[in-house]
Design brief:
Strand 1, helix 1 and strand 2 form a beta-alpha-beta unit. The protein has 5 helices and 4 strands, in the order βαβααβαβα. The protein is globular. Helix 1 crosses helix 5. By secondary structure, the chain is α/β, with parallel strands linked by helices. A 4-stranded parallel sheet has the order 2-1-3-4, sandwiched between helices. It binds 4-nitrophenyl phosphate.
C-alpha cells in the first residue's frame, strides 16, 4: 500500500516546520501508523540548509517529549509538490509561495493548505514565526502544532480506513 506523504513548510525550516514534523511524527508513531505515513519538512528559504533545528525549538519540543535532534533543514522543491499528498504551510506567506510554485509546475498533485485548517482551537490562524521573538513564541507554536496535528491525524486515519 502506498504511504501517505506529509510535508510541513515554513520559511527557514529550523523552527516551525521541523517542530511540526517532530510532533506529528510522534503522534503518527503512537497511533501505530509509522509504516503508513511519511512525515518531512522543508523551508521556502535556503539560508539554513543542512542545519539542525534552532536550539530553542529543540528545547521546547524536548520539554514535551519530542526530539527534533535528527532533523536537518532543506528547501522545498517543485518535485515535493509532485511527491507529497499533503503540503502544509505554517503561515500565509509560506502558503502563497507554495501556491505560486504549484501554478508554475506541470506535475504538482499535492493538496496545498494552511496547517491550522486542521486545528480545532486555532483554525485559519498562522503559526507565528518565533525566530526573532521572545522564547514564549515557541510554546505558542507547539500549542497550535499539537492541536492541528490531532486534526490532521484524524483526517489521515479516515483516508486510510476508506482504502
Ligand atoms: P522558521 O523560522 O521559518 O519557523 O524556521 C525562521 C527561521 C529563520 C529565519 C526566519 C524564520 N531567518 O530569517 O533566518
Amino acid at each position: 500500500m502506498n504511504k501517505i506523504n506529509v510535508l510541513f513548510v515554513c520559511l527557514g525550516n529550523i523552527c516551525r516546520s521541523p517542530t511540526a514534523q517532530g510532533v506529528f511524527r510522534e503522534q503518527v508513531r503512537q497511533a501505530g501508523l509509522a509504516d503508513a505515513v511519511q512525515v518531512e519538512s522543508a523551508g521556502t528559504g535556503d539560508w539554513h540548509i543542512g542545519r539542525a533545528p534552532d536550539e530553542r525549538a529543540q528545547a521546547a519540543a524536548a520539554a514535551r517529549h519530542v526530539s527534533l535532534a535528527d532533523l536537518r533543514a532543506r528547501q522545498v522543491t517543485a518535485a515535493d509538490l509532485a511527491h507529497f499528498d499533503y503540503v502544509l504551510a505554517m503561515d500565509a506567506d509560506n502558503l502563497a509561495e507554495l501556491e505560486r510554485m504549484k501554478t508554475e509546475s506541470n506535475d504538482a498533485t499535492a493538496s496545498v493548505a494552511l496547517f491550522s485548517d486542521y486545528s480545532e482551537r486555532f483554525r485559519g490562524l498562522p503559526v507565528p514565526d518565533p525566530y526573532f521573538g521572545s522564547g514564549h513564541g515557541f510554546e505558542h507554536v507547539l500549542d497550535i502544532i499539537e492541536d492541528a496535528s490531532r486534526g490532521l491525524l484524524i483526517d489521515i486515519e479516515t483516508r486510510l480506513a476508506a482504502r
